[in-house]
Amino acid sequence: MKISKSMITVAIVAAGLAGLSGCKNTSGTIVKTDHLTGASTIITENARLAHRVAVTKTTYDEVNGLKRVHITLASDRNKVLRVDYRICWFDANGMEIDPQTKTYRNLIIEGHDGVTVTGVANSPAAVSSKVRVRETSQAE
Amino acid sequence: MKKVYFSLCLICCATLLSGCATQVKEVPLDRTASTTRIEPQDIRRTVEKMVESLLVAPGVKEAVGGRRPVLDVEPMKNRTMQHIDMISLTESVRMQLLRSGMFRFVDRSSIGTAATDVERINQENQLGLVDSSKAVKAGQQTALDMYLTGTLSEIKNVDGRTTDQYYKFSMFLKDLKTGELVWADEQEIRKESTKPVINW
Known about the structure:
The complex is a heterodimer of chains A (140) and B (200).
Chain A: H1 5-21, E1 29-34, E2 40-44, H2 47-52, E3 53-63, E4 66-75, E5 81-90, E6 105-109, E7 114-120, E8 128-135
Antiparallel strand pairs in A: 1-2, 1-8, 3-4, 4-7, 5-6, 5-8
Chain B: H1 2-18, H2 40-56, H3 58-64, E1 70-73, E2 77-78, H4 86-100, E3 104-105, H5 114-127, E4 146-159, E5 162-175, E6 181-194
Parallel strand pairs in B: 1-3, 1-4, 2-4
Antiparallel strand pairs in B: 4-5, 5-6
Helix pairs in contact in B: 2-4
């Protein structure tokens, strides 16, 4: 049996695809809000996700002595978009408060729709928040 | 040519053998759904959502009114067909509420209940094992102001190869003095799975 060039090419391409399928980009979009000054920063780490979902509005308030943040996410796709988001809180020293208790929640956004997500601080000591959005398909 | 075949065989064998070893790794706590059953991430999300909802509810603020009421979290009732550790879920809710600093807690549900504690204190006093002037006397334990409890229910529909599973966590906070429901909320989860046409 003769091993032709085309067979070798096919094998290399298949191996390359198999290797690439294991590479998952878990970076996403981050929204940092300082609840004392009101300053809000949006950091885009994943261009693919940024083209699909945009942060259109960030507001914050305080309820029962606890800080609360509202983030509006809008989909730029026609199809249903599935993303995960996690809202974590930091004290005045910049230390994350109870990181284990804040989970990634899933969110389903209909085509070209916007959804507002809300997070409440788990301690009165919280002064800033960080919302991290990632693609659900990229979660392990 | 023989060398090429020999090398290919060797690679194949190595690949197959490497697949035999059990692989263990730590994974993130929040994974994507892999079954239609209740999974750890569902429990974690439910606890987080319920605690957040309770802490910002206007009714709770009114009932708390600047003091720290004494609360007990009773194990939620499991009305599903699955075995789910509801005590663990209850403990997670209590732990997060305790950290918020809004409530004080007593624990009547776990081992070492108030009655057992008092009995042990009395026995120790009678035997003269402890200094009677420093011994804890009965009748000084804090009484409950409120209790928190709830239920987990499910609806399951199977249509051909598709299984549609719906879960509903319901929780409520009751004021023992007035008998009023101070807060109630629900968390709904719906999952769907489709079996492949050819299933090994």
